[in-house]
Structure formats: C-alpha cells, structure tokens
C-alpha cells in the first residue's frame, strides 16, 4: 500500500510539471490567457485516488476502505468547487473598476455623445475587463441587436447588472440615460465606500482576537496569579 501511494504521488507530480513547448502549441501565448485551473481538473481523478489510497493505508480492513472512500469523496468535492484564479481576479477587477467606467460613461453622455459611441470611448480608454465588456456591449448594439434585449442581457450580468438595469429603465421610461448613469455612478461610489468601511471594521475585529490571545496569558500571570498566591499565603499564615 505504501508503494502504491508513493507511485500515485509521483505520477501526480509528473502531471503537474509544466510541459515544454511542442509543435502543436503556441509557446508565445501569454501566460495569463492560459487556464490556471486545468491542472487541478486534469488531476482530479488521480488526486481522489491518492486520497483513497492514503485513507486506506492508515487503517486496514473494511474501516480503512471506508476511510479511503470518504477521503476520495472529500478531495473530489473540494477540487470541483475550486475556482479559476483568473476568473476570480477578473471578477474583483470588474467590481473595482466599474464605478470609474460608469463615471466616464456619464461624462461622455454629458458632452452629447450617443451611448454607443460613449461605450467605445470608455472601452478604449479603460484597460481591463470593464473596457472589454463595454466594447462587447457596443459590438452587439452596432450589429443591430435590439437595445432593449442588449441591456436586458447586461442586467443579468453578475457585475454589470446595475448598469444594464439603469440604462434599460431609462430606455423604457424615456428618461435621460445620462441622468440614470450619473445616479448609478453615485450609488456605486457609496456602495464601494460602504464595502471599504465594512472591510476595515472586519479587520479590526479579526485583529482583536489574536491580540487578546497574546495579552490574556500576561494578564493571568501578572494580575491573577499573584492575587491567588497572596490569598493562599495569607491563609497559611493565619492557620
């Protein structure tokens, strides 16, 4: 069983190692564009098998087999829920840069630009996910897709949903898109400020626990122990 476990671990290490460039692969492709979660997904069955072998090697018999099956299921579920780091970074950057993009979009609308051209201007000025999403919205509008359908689709986006709902309501009611965008920008700024304050408060709470654990032994040794020793000493003297 030990040899089997060692062999599985070695095979997993070989599969994790990066593969050199081949004739069928473009080695000049940027690293950020390659999937970062692919090795975990490729190794998911093997790592589950390693978990099974490890659990079985600790306890022999049917109980060990049950422990191995439980370990394999845990490994399979945990690896299945792992998120692609590139997707997480893109989502966080969308949330961070969206207020700036909406501000710039409102500024373009204030000078008389149409929403389609404003999307292009802001998309080209902003690098990153927000600019890419704005250019994608402009492309759909440029090819003739119904604006109501386009903004309805944007409203279902996890991060761009507020923009899609605001512009969609303005189109339906005939209100000014610029006013709606400016109100949305102010709302996003307030939401961002509230998130920053909430994170700051959570950091204070999280920092208080380790500080308390560090100060508690000193308080016990310097404050409580001398009092207890003094009480017992006085009791001995009285007796």
Describe the structure.
By secondary structure, the chain is mainly alpha-helical. Among the domains are: 2-13 and 36-82; 87-192, Type II secretion system (T2SS), domain F (Receptor-associated Protein). It contains nine helices and no strands. The chain has helices spanning 2-16, 38-58, 61-81, 85-110, 115-125, 129-142, 147-155, 161-173, 177-238. Helix 2 (38-58) packs antiparallel against helix 3 and helix 7 packs antiparallel against helix 8 (161-173). The longest helix has 62 residues, at 177-238. It is flat. 20% of the residues are buried. Mean pLDDT is 74; it is low at 11-36.
Structural class from helices and strands? Answer: mainly alpha
Helix amount: over 70%
- The radius of gyration over CA amounts to 30 Å
CATH class of the domain at 87-192: Mainly Alpha
Q: Count the strands?
A: 0
Shape annotation = flat
Order of helices and strands: HHHHHHHHH
Proper CATH architecture of the domain at 87-192: Up-down Bundle
Contiguous helical run count: 9
Low-confidence stretches: 11-36
Beta content: under 5%
How would a textbook summarize the main sheet?
Answer: none
> Would you identify the CATH H-level superfamily of the domain at 87-192?
Type II secretion system (T2SS), domain F
Oligomer: single chain
Average pLDDT score: 74
At the fold tier of CATH, the topology name of the domain at 87-192 is Receptor-associated Protein
Task: Kindly report how far apart the N and C termini lie.
Answer: 67 Å
